[in-house]
Amino acid sequence: MADRTIQNEARSHTKARILVVEDEKVTAMDIHESLQSLGYTVLAVASSGEEAIQKAAETHPDLVLMDIKLVGCMNGVQAAHHLRTRFNIPVIYQTAFSDDKMLQQAKLTEPYGYLIKPFDERELHATIEMALYKHKMEKKLRESEQWFATTLRDIGDAVIATDSQERITFMNPVAETLTGWKLEDAVGKDLNQVFQIIHEETRCLLESPVAKALRAGVVVHQAGQTILMARDGTETPIDDNAAPIRDDQGNIMGVVLTFRDISERWQTEAALRILSHTDDLTGLYNRRGFLTLAQQNLKLAIRNRVGLLLLIIDVDNLKQINDSFGHPEGDRALISTAEILKATFRASEVLARLGGDEFIVLALDITHQSVDRITARLQETLKHHNEQTNGRYQLSFSTGIARFDPNQASSIDELITKADETMYAHKESKRRGHSG
């Protein structure tokens, strides 16, 4: 009754195809019959290791029952090694002897079971089913690992895996490219030797997100202002993310670090910042761009204890140009004003169009003695422009100046107000002089 139950259980599974390797004919026949009664398919019976390898190549069995002691030049352990490495076929050893030396050799081939002759069908069935199940699970795990490894290799992001001591265990090709390290050179090294990051502005070394993830036990994300220093000194702006890897007990085994090159994003953002800070018509800074740079220059002036000159330029006759010749001509007058400013001032000085007909210049380290000279140079450039164009109208500027003294607290808004006041006084004096 028990044997019939075993046979029914075996037949309920997909029939495994088995190669029997046994050099004793009677024993081979008994095993053959037992396997068939259990519902398995016997593909062939081989009597030597050489024959076993040949039969395996021809029939591709699901499992091999291998006698350890075989006639010929190749014993069962040697034959099993070939079957394992060449075909990845699970092997169950069978023997009537318990030779310790042979058993130690057999262990090295990682058998899926071990049967001591004589054995009954229940023992044979249980050993085979356990071997087939183990091989199936190993195959699934191997396929999963291959899929995972292929995914990590082909993914667009760079990936580095470490153990709990921050030693590198894996790098994908993208990580190799960005760090300048090959996987074989990096494995086993401390992460900080391979993955060195600095702050964009301070240029100081940053703590790796892996260290933070190991310490806090949570996912760590660092975005923006992070520069990766490659092995050859190449600098790449990156976005990175570090996630702890835990075992089934919740213990941290290591960290997976992913990062990506964001150079293109930085360039796009820089271009957008330039556009948002630039006057469309003249190409000079707009009000937003001017105020941003003005604050930076004010801090620099205070830190270095130097003067700061702010010059406002107003195009006197823009309304008349627009009314008499049309707005396109008025735009050309504004563009000409921008070109005059560029020709007059140094590239290091901030030139901006605040809006309408009003322009502004900000310069560091301008002494009181140079103020008259710089305004004179502006008027000279303006005069030259008017002579060269010989157009239907002459450009005319009213100017106002305010100077920042590092010993006295002043804001940019205060400087603009003071410059505006002197500019309007200049404009008024010119109007009175003209009317007089």
Task: Give a quick set of tags describing it.
disordered N terminus, 16 helices, Beta-Lactamase, alpha+beta, seven-stranded antiparallel β-sheet, five-stranded parallel β-sheet, Rossmann fold, 436 residues, 3 domains, Alpha-Beta Plaits
What's the layout of helices and strands?
Elements: H1 2-12, E1 17-21, H2 25-37, E2 41-46, H3 49-59, E3 63-67, H4 76-87, E4 91-95, H5 100-108, E5 113-116, H6 121-154, E6 158-163, E7 168-171, H7 173-179, H8 183-186, H9 191-194, E8 196-199, H10 209-216, E9 220-222, E10 226-229, E11 235-246, E12 252-261, H11 263-276, H12 287-304, E13 308-315, H13 318-325, H14 327-344, E14 350-355, E15 358-364, H15 368-389, E16 397-404, H16 412-435
Parallel strand pairs: 1-2, 1-3, 3-4, 4-5
Antiparallel strand pairs: 6-7, 6-12, 8-10, 9-11, 10-11, 11-12, 13-15, 13-16, 14-15
By CATH, the topology of the largest domain is Alpha-Beta Plaits
Assign the CATH superfamily of the largest domain: Reverse transcriptase/Diguanylate cyclase domain
CATH class of the largest domain: Alpha Beta
**Number of structurally distinct domains:** 3
Which structural category fits the helices and strands?
A: alpha+beta
In total, the number of strands is 16
Number of helices: 16
Q: Give unreliable regions as ranges.
A: 1-13
Portion of residues within helices = 40-55%
Question: How many whole angstroms does the radius of gyration measure?
Answer: 42 Å
Q: Indicate the overall shape.
A: rod-shaped
